[in-house]
Fold each of these.
Amino acid sequence: MKASVVANKDYTISKIDDRVYGAFLEHLGRAIYEGIYEPDHPTADKDGMRGDVADLVKKLDVPFVRYPGGNFVSAYNWEDGIGPRENRPTRLDLAWHTSESNAVGIHEFADWCATVNTEMMLAVNLGSRGVDEARNFLEYVNHPGGSYWSDLRIKNGRKEPWNVKLWCLGNEMDGPWQVGHKDADEYGKLAANTARAMRMFDKNLELIVCGSSNADMPSYPDWERIVLEHTYEHVDHISLHMYFANRDDNTPNFLGLAEKLDTYIETVAATIRQVKSKKRSKKDVTISFDEWNVWYHSNKKDREILDGNGGWPHAPGLLEDMYNFEDVLMVGLILNTFIRRSDVVKIACIAQLVNVIAPIMTEKGGPAWAQTIYYPYYFASVYGRGTALQLVTTSPTYETPHSAETKFVDVSGVHNEDEGVLTFFLVNRNPSETVETSVSLQGFNGVEVIDHQVMTHPNLKAINTSAKQNEVAPRKGEGAKLANGNLSVSLPPYSYQMVRVRLG
Ligand code: AHR
């Protein structure tokens, strides 16, 4: 089987916003406790943060981490997590039916972000709270001093403001599972009022309003239109979330979900354009895809606690999906979609980062390791920075419920002009055939292939465990060739690859 790709230097989509490689950490399960924070762990630093986890996070070059939720934020009092630890209250977390000790709050999280070289994206609680909480939290986090909340921050040990720029106006407010769930008009008005107040403090904040929780919500896509009609002039991004599942064990259909993702993005982009014209607005709103990942492996196991039959445990194992090789392909396809839609998707967060539906897993007192999906995320984040190319890909197709013509070969291309490098991320969705793929480089002087990474595995369900941490891992590829302005690469069945070409 054959496929061809044209990569022309003049046909570009957009500069990729680095923030498309962001991540998310919620007070949920063992993400924070036993994830990033475990004071008794042999690798813990003076603040009780695990060094082994920090090392794995640093390698990913994560531009920012969204915090503290998620569903958790909709009943969270951020004030519970400040001041001396011994005075912090234990609260019931209604979202996940657990207890929250508040041993980690904004100070500890901010210090951890500095350790792993990342920034914070914060969410305010628009579920059980509203404008007042948002303005106070903002003042605590970003005001230099001389006011009640900023002086309290200084008293609590942090002199300089954190100057957080990215703020989410609540989380998934369209979902009936959300504490303080609202309809689109109610939420739109509250979000607009909150945004106005926050901008009175600092007009340069970047504000993210909640879009739909997923493309199957009954209120989608009217939700986006109504919410934007209330908030268009006051916000910068609208958030989308999507989780991918292979519940009926049908790999071709599972991998075809990337088409549904593309349609979701296109529909919301069209809704943004509609509201923009209706408002005769000069400004743009873009998409913050601030929760995405594969999520289904752990659903059954989690039922007892989520149904409230497990009491109110502190940091139980929840949403601990063990990712397999098939998920590598899915994550590669999702990231390819974001690169191709970099004209409108400016922010995105893999959900989440540690233990909870995450690329990094830990054992209490034991090792931390990279799950299978760590690798496509790593390659995209580290090497997928630059300008997205408008590739023309011709490939044999197959049919799924999401599209009549799903290409077996899915490719994204990134031109990093500063480094003089072209990077291609390729996924072969064909279950049984190798696809010989030829990439015609037009206007580029390809000199040599400087890196070629391949992920394949005979068992789609293979996973990495603490005992077998490298069962699914990339290996150096062979046989990618440059000749006469053409890059040729062989894609084995069900494979993920990255090829990097140095330009002259
Ligand atoms: O990431 C897990 C949960 O998924 C988040 O808390 C919520 O926003 C979404 O439903």
Amino acid sequence: MMTEEYLHALLLNMTIEEKIGQLTQYNANVFLDSSADITGPRMQLGLTDEDLSRVGSVLNFSSVAEMKKMQDMHMENDPHRIPVVFMMDVIHGYRTIYPIPLALGCSFDAELAETCSRMAGKEAAASGVQVTFAPMVDYVRDPRWGRVMETCGEEPRLTGALAAAQIRGFQGSDLTYAENVAACVKHFAGYGGAEAGRDYNAVECSERALREFYLPAYKACIDAGAQMLMPSFNSLNGIPSVANPWLMKQVLKEEWDFDGVVISDYNAVGELLVHGVAADEKEAAKLAFDNGCDIEMCSSAYIHHLKELLEEGFFTQEQLDQAVMRVLRFKNRLGLFEDPYHGADQEKADCLYLCEKHREIAKRAAAESAVLLKNDGILPLQENLARVAVIGPFAREHGILGSWSCNGRDEETVTVADGMAALLKTGQVIVAEGCSNHWDDTDTSGFEEAIAAAKSSDAVILCLGEPQDYSGEGNCRTDIRLPGMQMELARRVIAANPKTVAVLFNGRPLDLSELDAVAPAILEMWFPGTEGGNAAAELIFGRANPCGKLAMTFPRSVGQCPIYYNHPNTGRPHWTRAAEHCGYTSDYIDCATLPLYSFGHGLSYANFVYVGMTLSDHQLSAEGSIRVSVRVRNESPVGGKETVQLYMRDPVASVVRPVQQLIGFRKVAFAPWEEKEIEFTLTEPMLRFWNFDMKHVSEPGEIQLMIGCADHFVLTDEIIMK
Ligand code: NOJ
């Protein structure tokens, strides 16, 4: 790595234009598409060749050769030989695709999340990527929002733990190492609170809710060493994040002391005009830069106006130099001054793509992220069945990677039909699509074939869900039921053969009330990635034992949304599963209050019995700790994993507290009939909350402890906080 003196010397010799270039990022096509100067992206962005030659970072490119070409072009023209840094969205894999982050959330397994990110980073780095725009840690409560698939769900502690693990996986311990990529945590902050679940929508959220639920996961990423941070598109309490002084200056810089690089989201500086908080591009540049946005992504406010703003005294030379130094240090940490390609090597990349090891990890991750929502005893199936029908629009659908699948290719995924055929010993797999999964498709001409297939088979695997482009950025829904004729197909197929397992592919919690009423078994696969079909087959036949637990609540209907397990208590709580209306309690007259499947729910083929909980003490002092031991026994002949979840409730506090909060979880493997003691250590900081004065404190009094899942506690006890 270069010395700090070297970087300062560089800075000293740079012109203002060169400095501003370091604070700008464009898409690769802007650099490569020179034929389109007159009408193309350069013209739209108002860029000259000179501007472009100074730009310090590039978003998205298609190959190592392309990346090297851009780097070479740049280095030849840059008198200071400051390399460009290349960034991309490597969210859940580069070419080998792992389950979507929401699925990984359900694994409750930080080690697994770290491994997936490490493998994804390895493929990406060999392909020329130096920075990934991940992890995304936006806190979510509303499944209508398409981007819930990119998050790890509705639990701040869980999301923080998995995101920190992803950062360790991507960044490793030394960023100069060619297999590591820098991580950019996003989108700061509150983006997941988009009103009505509509993407980019305004977010109105109290400071208490922000600090309690939304902000901790970003902080966990910074503590884990995230090198970069991206403010969110949305306005937060009236001010777009990239121009929000409370968020960017007070919280991020002053309270959290973040000294990494801040990069805007795509055109987010330009969009300050559209939001209506900047009259023109110059004001947009001023607002974003003044609030600590170092790099502007894909708009030109900085290139066009920062110099002028500096000359007019809107900010100081020192402010500019500090931002540039952050970028130079960052490039130095990546070792780019020594190796501007950061070890990119197409041959190496080709060997890594879809290699056996990565496929194996992808399969394990898909299996561990799947959640068995319901099982009336028909799963697992025997491998010696004579005939199995794989029915539904996802039976031989390759599009199960999910949104943000980077360079993943649908045609390289394993379908359910293929996965089943590989495991069924001598029997026959027959396939019938039945209908499509599009919302406006009313075609039922495939029903007959599907019903005949169901009737003539020993068991049916009914593969349903929503197309992968129904979730992800900009893909929000107001109707979160199974699209098209799928529910009708399900009813007919289940009537034809009651031994039917519904296997689901989707990027958000769906309203499954109708399916739950008729299907004897439901296996939620999410978008499982490259190895999805193999993982599904292993789970169906019991070669793998389901162990995922929901990281996000499944509502009974969209009308319950937003719905989440850790909601505040009310003065008139309604807490039964009963559908009946009780009158003047916080409920609905036409729907039960509790969700269909709550946070933390997930079945297994093993039978885990919670034997008892013991506490080393019942009084907790500020400096002390209490050991909470939970005895769990696997009362079954099959091995499996159980995620033991510890919740708390603070029944009397100076502000209204959530009805329950997860404060610890342990995912533990059990052999058949094995009994284990699982331990948690309880300390005072775990009980803290933001009080009336916005101080993070715990208060003396009773704290209830619960073990189980959010709507079903099997053990309870209480302690006194002194
Ligand atoms: C917009 C998305 O909001 C963000 O998540 C992503 O990193 C950037 N585009 C760059 O692709």
Amino acid sequence: MTQTITVIRGDGIGPEIMDATLHVLDSMNLGLQYEFADAGLVALEKQGELLPAATMDSIRKNRIALKSPLTTPVGEGFSSINVELRKRFDLYANVRPAKSFPNTKSRFPSGVDLITVRENTEGAYIGEGQTLSADGEVATLTQKITRRGSERIVRYAFELARRTGRKKVTIVHKANILKSTSGLFLKTARAVATEYPDIECNEMIVDNTCMQLVMRPEQFDIIVTTNLFGDIISDLCAGLVGGLGLAPGANIGTDAAIFEAVHGTAPDIAGQGKANPCALLLAAAQMLDHLAMPEKATRLREAIIATLEAKDSLTPDLGGSGNTMSFAKAIATRI
Ligand code: ATP
């Protein structure tokens, strides 16, 4: 069966890492067809809009998008196109794996293999009700947490654990202080957890979680938390395993899912063939899992690991003298 996916090549290093990623996917005979669509600066330049209707229609129709980083110019309507996409498609689950890979600048060369599941649509992060008093002395923000939003993200985390054979879910909160919002999240999460007696569940306050992650990351398997805590924790976890060059992310909703590299457009190295394509490749592996092709996803991950192990054609950020496409070709050869 042929599956069409929307492909957004993006800005900065986006086109280079996307070409490299598609080269690898093409070598796998996946039956994927690509529908190219623009967003970000390139769309603004070509079509006069950051997020053209045709791009939205393409994602809506195909339900799956693979997306490179985008530039959101200041003063162009959105604070972030990524946040706008999450909002418009109700992509409520932000899924960020962090895994130790060989020959990377990891703090923990082995032993980190965890996934942060971050609620993506509510809480302080979305910036609702922001005000600044006329004299500039007082600022406010509304933080809204709902039972529905909490329930669906925690359920997603437990279902992910079951699907992937993971054993434990840690509910991360600050209910001791934020009794209403974090309190509702925790109470809802506890209730959902009772439906999954086969999965171990524990609770941890967010500040302690940060310390534990840095000291003993191997104790974590899946972390589920609210939007702002998840934003911070998932980058902390990327740091544990060698930085953003290896950090993929999925934004998943009921009607659509967008897979992306977590890093930005890296304008300092754009167009030079220096960009590491691993984060987008690992996002593509998440996409294959989502498309019910877990064996293909595993093959892709194993080929990335084998290429890192062999130090074959690695990009300069990994200490190699290869380039974006030669790295991708080395991975494709191993597949
Ligand atoms: P943006 O404004 O889009 O967020 P940025 O440069 O501020 O871009 P990042 O793109 O995340 O933020 O880059 C931070 C640093 O990491 C830069 O020095 C960049 O060159 C480097 N970097 C980011 N992604 C990669 C990559 N895939 N390969 C190699 N280096 C990268």
